[in-house]
Design brief:
By secondary structure, the protein is of the alpha/beta class. The chain is built from 9 helices and 10 strands. Helix content is 36%, strand content 16%. The relative contact order is 0.14. The mean pLDDT is 97.
Length: 287
């Protein structure tokens, strides 16, 4: 297991003020060697002559040679891409969702990576039984299948997320069963599994080939009740990260491992990420 960071870790509570080179330089200083980038429609685009003060970018409309060069210049490898814009809520949104996912797969290919995390849309409410949102699960699988045949090197991983269409282990299993492509699977977000009361490591044990990305997060409830969760420094929340490490240890699945600490203020971000990386490495190495 080689742990990288997701670029989202360089933002806080909607604040996105670091350029891509600045964000990557900070991650390298924290000890990371790899990064998963994000592509979000409507965000700023990056070109060689215009570098926004933001690291969450519209990569589909960016100069990807410039992106690759800037990341490499900071000593990082691009290990994957996360793309948003996937909406399985209605048949009317199907074509636009396919186009967004196709853009994400194209960008990943041009960036030289093949792990593609992607959004899965929002459920009407959190905690729904899979039967109550089955049409959404099936439509999501159809969106992925519509793109997967065009990108035979790409591993697609839907974000398992609180209040998402894919939220529980039962959702994950039903989604996998609905897929035609063997390269569709789940981005297993350990923190969101905790928030949703799920033993997410069981999916790693049962379906290693269907978990091409593990998102390493540690969640606990917000004591002020302002949010349904807090994403905190790894090892300081309620997520049994050791169970996930044990489940993944020794597996030979083609998998990216990415760390995020979402709710650490920017002044504390680098220390929290560095400590999180050290903590996971200690679990992996049995220290």
């Amino acid at each position: 297991m080689k742990f990288s960071a997701i670029i989202h870790a360089m933002t806080f509570d909607g604040q996105d003020a670091l350029s891509l080179p600045e964000a990557c330089a900070t991650l390298r200083e924290c000890g990371f060697e790899g990064v998963m980038l994000m592509s979000i429609p409507g965000r700023p685009a990056l070109t060689a002559g215009s570098v926004p003060d933001a690291c969450l970018l519209d990569l589909a409309n960016s100069d990807l040679d410039a992106v690759k060069r800037m990341v490499a210049d900071e000593g990082l490898e691009i290990v994957g891409l996360y793309c948003s814009g996937i909406d399985p809520s209605s048949s009317d949104a199907f074509d636009a969702s396919v186009a967004s996912l196709r853009d994400g797969a194209r960008v990943a290919r041009e960036l030289g990576c093949h792990h593609l995390g992607h959004g899965g849309g929002r459920a009407p409410s959190p905690g729904l039984a899979v039967e109550a949102k089955l049409s959404l699960v099936q439509r999501l699988a159809a969106i992925v299948d519509a793109v997967a045949d065009e990108f035979d090197e790409t591993l697609f991983a839907v974000d398992a997320h609180y209040h998402g269409v894919i939220e529980s282990l039962a959702d994950c299993e039903r989604y996998i069963a609905a897929l035609s492509s063997p390269r569709g699977g789940v981005l297993l977000n350990t923190g969101h599994m905790t928030t949703c009361g799920q033993d997410g490591w069981e999916l790693v044990e049962r379906r290693p080939e269907r978990v091409p990305v593990i998102g390493w997060k540690d969640h606990r409830p917000d004591p002020e009740g302002k949010r349904p969760l807090l994403s905190v420094e790894l090892g300081t929340g309620d997520t049994p990260l050791g169970r996930y490490v044990e489940a993944a240890r020794g597996q030979h699945a083609d998998r990216a491992h990415v760390i995020n600490v979402e709710h650490a203020p920017m002044a504390d971000k680098a220390a929290a990420l560095s400590a999180s990386l050290s903590y996971l490495r200690s679990l992996r190495d049995g220290a």
